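Example for reference:
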Amino acid sequence: MKPYSHILVPIDLGDQAKRVLDHARIIAERFGSRIDLLYCFPNPQFPDASGLLNPLSPEVVEDARNDAEQQLQEMITTHDRDHYKAVARVVVTDPLDGIVDYAKRERIDLIVMGTHGRTGLTHMFLGSVAERVVRTAPCDVLTVH
């Protein structure tokens, strides 16, 4: 098995986030890896009074970004910071683009991420971020169900 020196853990702040991070910790312990937590906040567009689609205001986006940053910081323990050099990042972008771009830019060796288990029409129309990351990532990807 090849060593993984830098692990990316993209999370969505849902119920599964802790389990995904726990898997990354086990791998990081084995290889002495760094861990980066990443939350991608997409800026959805909403219709305004004229019916045109507009993204959220910069103030709303900044508030959401700060809230996500605080939640990520709370997930990282002192042991994570000291032992795994763990950091938390929040970016405002589409999750697929954000995860793959971050992995390329930071030379990530392994992405550990959760799946939502969508099936049927929801999966057909929305697809799966995890599935698309597996296909496009520049490194190995471990999905946690």
Observations:
- Strands lie at 6-10, 34-40, 45-47, 53-55, 87-91, 110-114, 140-144.
- The radius of gyration is 16 Å.
